[in-house]
C-alpha cells in the first residue's frame, strides 16, 4: 500500500508534465489537474504505441519519458494547481486515495491477469509489438493500448502492475474538480478491477468522464472524438462512445469534418497495430482480409469464435446444443442461465427497457443520442458474444444519465462509504463472497489479506515451466498451471498448443535469429506431428 502511494506520487507529476506538453499541440479537453493528466495518458500511450513497433518498452523508454514529464511539471509550475482544492476537498481526496491504495494492494484474481495481461506486458517490455504474435498464442494478438501504457511504466515506476490504482486516483481528482458527485458511487465497483492492469477499468473511467463532458456542453469536439476513439482502441466493445461523440459533434455542435482528423489518426494507428500483431484490423474478428501472410490459421480462429459462443452461455451448453437453438431458445437460455450471470443478463435487458422509456418521456436530444449509441453497442454485443463483461459499462451509463441530477454530494459520499466497506469486507474475507455469491466464480480466486500488503502490494510468483521445441520454435509451458504469467517468453498456453496440434499446424519464427520479425504458422510434417503428440502426452501427464 505504501509503495503504491509512492508509485502514484511519482507517476502523476510525470503524466501532468507530459500532458502539458501534449496540450501545446492538441489543446486541452478541459482545464484542471485531471484534464492535464488525461492528456498525458493519451499522449504517452499513442507515442509508445508507435515506438513499440521498433523498440521494446524497457527502461530506456521509461526514463526519458519520466524525465521529460518532471521537467515540464516543474517548468510550468503545475504543482501550484494542487492548492486550488479547499481543505475539505483535500481531506476527502486523501481519504478516498487511501481506500484506493488499500484495495489495490490485494492479490490479483482476474484470470485474464495471468493468461493475457501479464504475458502481453512481458512481450512488450522485452520486444515491443511483435508481428504475427497471435500465431504463438491467439490472446496475445490483442496487445491493448492499455497494456502498452502499463508496460512502459512497469520497469521501475510501477513494477507491481497497479497502474489502474493511479487511474482511480485521477478519477477521484476529476470528480472533486467537476463536483460530479454521482460518480463517487462508481468507485467501489471499479475497485474490483484495481489489482490488475485490466482495460475494463480505464475505459469505464474515461467513458464516464467524456460522457460528463458531453452532457455538460463541452464543445471541443475534436478532442472529444479523438479521446473517444482512444477509449475504443483500448477496448473495442466501447464502440458506443465514439458513436455518441460523433453524433454530438455533427448533430448538436455541428462541427465540420476537421474535428474528426485527430480521432481518425488514432483509429488508423489502432488498425495498423492490430494488423501487425493479429493480421486483421479488429481483434478478434477476422473481417477485411488483407491477405496478410502472418494472419492466424482459419481453424484456430473458428475455434476461438466457438469458444466465445460457449462463454456467452457460461459453458453450460455444448456448441452443438447452442447451434440447434431456435431464436426463442437463444434468448430464453441466455436469460435463464444458472447462477448470477442470469440475473446480470436480465438486469441488462430491463435497464435498456427502462432507459428507452425514460428517453421517450424525456424527449431530450442528448438523452436520445445516448440511447441510440448504447443500443447500437448492445445489439452488436448480443450478436457476437453476449458476455456480461462486454456490456457492464452500459449499467454505469444508464445509472449516470438517470440520476446525475438527483444524487447530491452527501448522498454520494454516504453511498461510496457504505459500498467501500462492503467491498473491503469481501476482499479481506473472500469466503464471505463465496458463501453469499457461490456462482461468482472469481470469488474463489481471491487471495487472503496479508499484513505485508500494507507496505507492498501482494503479487504471485510461480516460475515453474517446461521447455519444448517444434520446428525452429523453442517454447515454454507453465507446469501444472494453465497460464503463463510467470513463464519466460516465448510461452504458449496449454490449450493453444493442443488446438494447434489438432489443426496440424504450429507457430514458427519467421527468422529464428530475430524474434522481432515475428511468427507465422506452418503445417506440421509427419515427423513433427509425432513429436508434437509426444509434447501433448507430456503436458497432459505433468500438467
Labels describing this entry:
about 550 residues, mainly alpha, two-stranded antiparallel sheet, 22 helices, about 60% helix, about 5% strand, globular
**What is the percentage of strand-forming residues?**
under 5%
Shape: globular
Radius of gyration, in Å, reads 23 Å
Largest sheet: 2 strands, antiparallel
**How far do the termini sit from each other?**
35 Å
| DSSP strand tally | 4
| Helix content, binned percent | 55-70%
Average pLDDT over all residues: 91
Query: Helix and strand succession?
Result: HHHHHHHHHHHHHHHHHHHHEEHEEH
Which strand order do you get reading across the main beta sheet? Answer: 1-2
Structural class: mainly alpha
By DSSP (H or I, 4+ residues per run), the number of helices equals 22
Contiguous uncertain segments of 5+ residues: none
Structure description:
This protein is mainly alpha-helical. It has 22 helices and four strands. It has helices spanning 2-26, 33-51, 59-75, 87-104, 111-126, 145-152, 163-178, 187-190, 200-215, 221-234, 240-253, 261-277, 298-312, 319-323, 327-335, 340-362, 365-384, 388-403, 409-428, 430-436, 494-502, 526-542; strands at residues 465-470, 473-478, 505-509, 519-523. The mean pLDDT is 91.
Topology readout:
Elements: H1 2-26, H2 33-51, H3 59-75, H4 87-104, H5 111-126, H6 145-152, H7 163-178, H8 187-190, H9 200-215, H10 221-234, H11 240-253, H12 261-277, H13 298-312, H14 319-323, H15 327-335, H16 340-362, H17 365-384, H18 388-403, H19 409-428, H20 430-436, E1 465-470, E2 473-478, H21 494-502, E3 505-509, E4 519-523, H22 526-542
Antiparallel strand pairs: 1-2, 3-4
Helix pairs in contact: 1-2, 1-3, 1-7, 2-6, 2-7, 4-7, 5-6, 7-9, 9-10, 9-18, 10-11, 10-12, 11-17, 16-17, 16-18, 17-18, 19-20, 21-22
